[in-house]
Amino acid sequence: MAILTTWIACASIGLVIVWILSRTFAKDKLGHLPGPNGFPLFGSVLEIEKGRMRITFQKWARQYGGLYRVKLGVQDSIVVSHFKYIQQILLKDGKIFAGRACPFRQM
Questions:
Q1: For the segment 28-77, what is each residue's pLDDT rounded down to a tens digit?
Q2: Degrees (nearest 5) of the Cα angle 36, 56, 73?
Q3: Number of CB atoms found within 10 A of residue 70's CB
Q4: CB distance 64 to 34 below 8 Å
Q5: Distance of CA 7 to CAs 21, 40, 47, Å?
Q6: How many other CB atoms are there within 10 angstroms of residue 32's CB atom?
Q7: What is 47-105 written as a DSSP string?
């Protein structure tokens, strides 16, 4: 029992150290955008209730605005939920985003 407790404590400390180092030394290109902080390795996935993804994203849009970042697992994503940003991205800068894969199924 003591070995298991020691192993769990060491693994937990190791994960915390890795998380702190990744936050300290990672060059976060999206750091200037607001958004939920999330958890190490999981991001904000644990905050999304099953079958209620749309409602969670709407809540975050009210909280963080029409353009925010969200970490889903280890993947950083940008959520665009306001018409003026959608218009800018799709109509004016559409060539930049053309051909990108959509990581989500239809909600």
A1: 566 688 888 888 788 888 888 888 888 998 999 999 998 898 888 878 88
A2: 55
A3: 23
A4: yes
A5: 21, 19, 28
A6: 7
A7: GSPTT-HHHHHHHHHHHH-SEEEEEETTEEEEEE-SHHHHHIIIIISHHHHTTPPP-S-
